[in-house]
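Translate structure to sequence.
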C-alpha cells in the first residue's frame, strides 16, 4: 500500500469522524480528538485489511471498507459510552 493511499485513508477517516460527530443527535460523549483518532484508525485499518486480502489495485474497495469501518467504530464507541453514562 502506497504512502498516498494511507494518507487518503487517514484524511477520509478524519472526514468520517467529523461527519459522525455532526450526525449524532444530542452531542456525543466522545471527545473531538478521540473521534478523529477512531476515524483514522478505522479507515486505515479497514483499507489495510482489504489491501492484505485482495492485494494491489483495489483502492476503491479499500476506501469504501475503510469508510464503513471508521463509521462503525465511531458509532460503536459512542453507543458504548452512552450506555455506560459517560459524558463530556
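Result:
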Amino acid at each position: 500500500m502506497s504512502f498516498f493511499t494511507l494518507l487518503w485513508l487517514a484524511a477520509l477517516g478524519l472526514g468520517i469522524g467529523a461527519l459522525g460527530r455532526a450526525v449524532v443527535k444530542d452531542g456525543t460523549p466522545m471527545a473531538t480528538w478521540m473521534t478523529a483518532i477512531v476515524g483514522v484508525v478505522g479507515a486505515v485499518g479497514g483499507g489495510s485489511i482489504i489491501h492484505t486480502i485482495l492485494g494491489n489495485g483495489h483502492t476503491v474497495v479499500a476506501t469504501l471498507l475503510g469508510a464503513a469501518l471508521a463509521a462503525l467504530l465511531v458509532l460503536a464507541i459512542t453507543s458504548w459510552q452512552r450506555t455506560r453514562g459517560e459524558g463530556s
